[in-house]
Amino acid sequence: MTALGKALHCKAEFDVTSKEARLTVETQADDATHRAYSLLTGSLNSNGLEMNIEGLLNFEDGCGTHKGTLTFGADGLATSCMTTVEGSSLTFENTINAGIDGDGASMSVVSKGSAQDNTIELSAEGIRFHPKKRI
Question: Which of 86, 92, 96, 81 is nearest to 120 (CA)?
Fold first, then answer.
């Protein structure tokens, strides 16, 4: 679809077989100086569920990206994502990793940023708890 110099495109696919289901959704929006794009993919099969997302945003003074993954299967649940933003005088990056499995749960977050001559970094690791074993 295009109107007044702006365009929006969206494409979705969903496939199902006896062994697997797959989903893909792709979206893009544009004008003369800006662009937004996202891609969501996923599958469900005998190994479990996996979802992935990627996003991109370009604007006049900078850009941003996001990438994430979620998996859920026999080994547990795991997720990770990274987001970055860059502007004329600013940069920012955030990374998250988390998981739950038979040994417990864990999470870590790392955020970094800078603006002009100043920088900051924050790191945190989540608590790993161990479920009680039943006899």
Answer: 92
